[in-house]
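Dear colleagues,

As part of the handover before I leave the project, I'm documenting each prediction I ran so the next person doesn't have to rerun anything. This entry is a single chain, and its sequence is reproduced below.
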Amino acid sequence: MSKNTDMECFSIDESGYTGFDLLNPDQHFQGASAIAISDEEAVRLIKEHFPKLQAPELKYRSLSRRNGNHDRLLSLQRDILTQFKCVTYICDKRFLLVLMFVDYAVEPFYYERGIDFYANGQNYAMASLLTLAGPTLLGQPAFDNLLMAFQNAVKKKTPTAIRALLTTARATQWQQLPEVLGPLAQFAAPECLDAIVNPGVNTDAAFVVLQSLISRMEVMADAAYRVEHDQSKNLLRYRELLQRFIDHDQDIEFRQSQSASIKFPLKLAEVTQVDSKASPAVQLADVMIGAAIEAANNTSGLRSGGLDPEALMSLYGENQFIHLTPSINFEEQRRFREGTQASEVIDYFAANFFGPPKA
């Protein structure tokens, strides 16, 4: 496909993608960055901050290993964040899996009984509590086994996998959190099991990442815009989802949080793949997401080295950084998600964007 160079272009890159497996111990976080910058401007920035670069392309992982590059990397990102439209999204994949557990293995039970489980972000509060307190209250490794069994059941959708999930739920100390584990462990609620085996339900985080990026790109773009991304295998999944977003022409809008909404049809009009070696703009997106993932790992105590996380995060302005992580500040969560349409969003996206592409 030839690209329309007259449209504003956001270059994106991702990090941490592991498909359906959100429990990969080496990839705790997943995210992506989007930057509206021309290749010419990107070349200027790269030459300004790394005038002696000999490598064929700018790669964050390689550069961050040397302490002498840290100030240059911070300075480069400061210029990007102050001079260009951009956004970075990071999610804790384990928390996202717990949130999915709440959405599909818990919420349908309450829906059948006339309870709006999503009102004011109650699902986020419960998922946060389960993530942070689950190992203690339910027992570990019983809690880990539960998450693995849920992930496997969503992927395989077989009677054997469902039975294993129920057995694993009952093997936890579920009586400590009966409002969360009761639907599976006590009742084997058919409405929850139906949700888990629904073809439109999966644990791939790419959709969550893209949905968040798009919600910001739609605000930042003044008119129709396009997206360019690298040719990596991981981004093939992102490309497929982006094309589905582009092709969806129904007129509808959802409020997702206090600061985010998404409206179809999108301004996003085109997606193309490029070789990152030939795209300085994509290389800058690699720097942004690479630094953000590294900061998340360092802040969580999972790794060390690289840029100072506090110095990096201080560069970000309002609405330039989005994160999905557990929080026990339930009042703040309630205010942030008050009046949102979480239930409608989940149902609508499952019906229109998940599963095999429509003919």
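Residues 95-197 form one domain. The first strand starts at residue 8 and ends at 15.

All the best with the project,
I.
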